[in-house]
Amino acid sequence: MASGRLRLINALSRALVRRQIAHVPGPDRARNDLERATRLFLRPPAKTSTIEDGRIRWISCGNCDPASVILYFHGGGYIAGSPVTHQAMLGRLSELSGVRVAALTYRLGPEHPAPAAFEDACRAHADLVARGYGPGDIVLGGDSAGGGLALALLARLCATDMRPAGLFAFSPWTDLTMSGGTITSNAAADRLLPSERIGELLDYVASPDMRRDPRVSPLFAQFDKPPPVLMQVAQTEILADDTYRMADKLRESGGVVEVQTLPDAPHVWQLLDGYLPEARESLTEVAGFIHRLIRPLKPEAGN
């Protein structure tokens, strides 16, 4: 059963945030709105440490295993977001998992349309390997557009025999052709994303001939022996089918996939750690998934 806080957040998201997104005039305003909201309302755990290193923002909290890393790609529809907007959630995930996060600042549209973000993701992974991380020391992660980016990178890494330990994704955007049935069937139910703005967003981030390209739509990629994958999504999201069909694709390729669902929640509710008990529960599930993959050091007592 949904917590009272989730029911309240659902109502506020629908009444306020979704309405704001529906009327935001363009990418610059979308970026500013997201940055301001996260700065005002989302706080990382007290022991969170951040280091800027080129395009990577290293985020850690507590006792982290130096031999493993989470390579994370933020969401924001490929036009907004940054490691800074997501660092509160990523600090908590680092604390819960005992693993340091390497969060990538990748190029955004419309200034840098697809496949710019994918190219940056490939470079970031190569950089981690050059630093001494083995492919199996790396866990990929991402939310929304960043979840799709992580899955697109996974397909490339499987094809080049550089498979990571595994991947987790929060409500990933995996199909820029927007052929999923929930785009329309959940249009009225989605708590955060207005489906009527999708076409405009696509024009900012990918030309029509790119939208089926596996570098931006991993639903159409080939996955050779993929590692374990965990995805979380709400059943009321317009992107729900992007998760369900992606899971089917990975299973058909021989992968082990777990999909965890909430009946009704805002898109990427995990960002609301500290407000929603469901957010903490979801991040704890991801931390357990990471432990099973790479068995990092235990977090410090009391964290």
Which strand order spans the largest sheet, edge to edge or round the barrel? 1-2-4-3-5-6-7-8
Strand content: 15-25%
Query: Helix share of residues?
Result: 40-55%
Cα gyration radius (Å): 18 Å
Please state the overall shape, judged from the principal axes of the Cα atoms: globular
Brief overview:
41% of the residues lie in helices and 17% in strands. The chain has 303 residues and is of the alpha/beta class.
Give descriptors for this structure:
303 residues; 8 strands; globular; eight-stranded mixed sheet; alpha/beta
Topology:
Layout: H1 4-23, H2 27-41, E1 48-53, E2 56-61, E3 65-73, H3 83-97, E4 99-104, H4 116-130, E5 138-143, H5 145-159, E6 166-170, H6 182-185, H7 198-205, E7 229-234, H8 240-252, E8 257-262, H9 277-294
Parallel strand pairs: 3-4, 3-5, 5-6, 6-7, 7-8
Antiparallel strand pairs: 1-2, 2-4
Helix pairs in contact: 2-3, 3-9, 4-5
Description:
The protein is an alpha/beta fold. It has nine helices and eight strands. It has helices at residues 4-23, 27-41, 83-97, 116-130, 145-159, 182-185, 198-205, 240-252, 277-294, and strands at 48-53, 56-61, 65-73, 99-104, 138-143, 166-170, 229-234, 257-262. It has an eight-stranded mixed beta sheet, with helices on both faces. Helix 2 packs across helix 3 (83-97), helix 3 (83-97) packs across helix 9 (277-294) and helix 4 (116-130) crosses helix 5 (145-159). The radius of gyration is 18 Å and the shape is globular.
